[in-house]
């Protein structure tokens, strides 16, 4: 079976000759939960943009669910992104005037899902993150942790091949951070493939696979066996 994501020998150079990624190879299989961890300036955002098909590599290939993104035009790339990738951001990126359910349903806007199916799918996704009872609440009526759970529901609503979570606990206090990490682990337990991008080694250490990036290069890629949810 195809991996969810396969990056082969990718470089990304910015104008001015900055090489933000240098010969990066990364394969993510279905069902994985991994951290991509590195300090500020190491190339995490650049890598995230390639993984999320928001950008193309200067050289090398990026393949999502068997499709080489470097061969797709913008329209096909947007369609692939809408179908295969769910995004979770540090600052939640919810739309203020919309209810939780409507915010989740926006995750289906570009995926070609008929309008009448969007509501039920959004409610099912809210249920998966334990927020069915908050479906009519607007973002300002929700706590930070609840907002992030709504954003996770939006990322899940179209059943993507890969969820990319960019510093998902960066705007949360310790208790809410723990709860969000626990939710991501629970979702992974039932098969959701998740890559979490973070500068925080402590968070990375709690995940079963850790890919370290420094100066645009992957410097280590370690997996730990999990037994009954406990790292061994
Ligand atoms: P991180 O997300 O780990 O902080 P980035 O991917 O943002 O790292 O940046 C990696 C390197 O690429 C840094 O040296 C940064 O200054 C540089 N960089 C990022 N974006 C641009 C850009 N648009 N133009 C030029 N250099 C950039």
Question: What does this molecule look like?
Answer:
With 232 residues, this protein is an alpha/beta fold. It has one domain (30-42, 80-231): P-loop containing nucleotide triphosphate hydrolases (Rossmann fold, 3-Layer(aba) Sandwich). The protein has 7 helices and 12 strands. The protein has helices at residues 44-51, 74-84, 100-105, 115-128, 144-156, 174-189, 201-205; strands at 5-14, 18-28, 33-37, 59-64, 67-68, 85-88, 162-166, 194-198, 209-214, 217-223, 226-227, 230-231. The strands form 3 sheets. It has a 6-stranded mixed beta sheet, with helices on both faces. A 4-stranded antiparallel beta sheet has the order 2-1-4-5, covered by helices on one side. A two-stranded antiparallel ribbon has the order 11-12. α5 runs parallel beside α6 (174-189). The longest helix is centred in the last third of the chain and has 16 residues, at 174-189. The radius of gyration is 17 Å and the shape is globular. The structure holds adenosine-5'-diphosphate (ADP). The site of adenosine-5'-diphosphate has 12 residues, from β2 and α1.
Furnish the topology, listing elements before pairings:
Elements: E1 5-14, E2 18-28, E3 33-37, H1 44-51, E4 59-64, E5 67-68, H2 74-84, E6 85-88, H3 100-105, H4 115-128, H5 144-156, E7 162-166, H6 174-189, E8 194-198, H7 201-205, E9 209-214, E10 217-223, E11 226-227, E12 230-231
Parallel strand pairs: 3-8, 3-9, 6-7, 7-8
Antiparallel strand pairs: 1-2, 1-4, 4-5, 9-10, 11-12
Helix pairs in contact: 4-5, 5-6
The structure holds adenosine-5'-diphosphate.
